[in-house]
Write a structure and sequence with these properties.
Helices cover 9% and strands 38% of the residues. With 356 residues, the protein is mainly beta. Among the domains are: 106 residues, UDP N-Acetylglucosamine Acyltransferase, domain 1; 71 residues, no CATH class. A hairpin with a 2-residue loop joins strand 3 and strand 4. The relative contact order is 0.05.
Length: 356
Amino acid sequence: MKTNIIINKDVRSQQDKSGIRVVCLTKYLKIMEEKFILTDRFIVSDSGKKLFQIQCVETFKYANAGDLGGYVAKEENLSQLGDAWICDDARVYGDARVYGDARVFGNARVSGSAQVAGDAYVSDSAQVYGSAQVSGNAWICSNAQVYGNAQVYGDARVSDDARVFGNARVAGSAQVAGDAYVSDSAQVSGSAQVAGDAYVSDSAQVYGSAQVSGNAWICSNAQVYGSAQVYGSARVYDNARVFGNAHVFGNARVAGSAQVAGDAIYSNGLILGNAYIDSNDKHCGFDCFGSQNRHTHAYMTTDGEIEITCGCFRGSLEEFLKKVEETHKGTIYEKQYKAIIEVIKVKFGVYEKDNV
């Protein structure tokens, strides 16, 4: 049986006839027995490496003396300190480490230089690999994968077939589930939920009690927070913000520095620039008009102006009228668009302002 002497995190091993492990951390001295050993039982991994089954030799929180555990490539994969344990058919190999009070069980796999620490759980058929870190009370389960330089911590949970990778962070009590992806330098925190086939990427942030689901995509430097919900095939990108109790769904696009807030409900169409929508009184939309049956959307900006988006057009109400007359003069589409312009004026009180 080995004895390790650890001084200022510099680890050295030596033989000790007493079978006692001595651990010295600067001013701290502790003598403890090993809690597990590597048995002669082994399996061969897909890469052809032997993985040895471990056995508990000293009863502790998660195992009794004599219990067989999971599989490791070497003793360093599981700390002899704390209550960390690997059991069932779980496998930890490469330079991966499981320590603290963490547990890896079921058919879970931890490999590469990944770390599982604190009171974290990795279970079922979940995988943690690369240089990923899972800590705190985080739980990675089902068929979820955490890899790259991703970090999952706090009380966060990643489940189902979800993926967290790149330099992504999932923290707080956030949940990533379904087939959702969180990648690059994106962050999901608070009690936020990302589910379905949703994608959060680049430097985007989802936090508070926000929910992103369906086929929604939050990317670039966009933020979704508060109690906001983004779902369907909606996209929020650039420096856009969706917050409060706002709902963005359908084929909606929120981009630029646009903000959708309050109790606003927005579906279909495109909101750009410095739009600011904090209620349904500040925007309106029209479907299936014009030669291409496009969606025409009108909204208020932070400057108190009305802006229109229609297809590739974006501009003021006056610019939209000019474009309609240039493109559709003498056609039924000119009449349709001019009727829309009149409704927009009524919606936003343009006539009342003109009469003041």
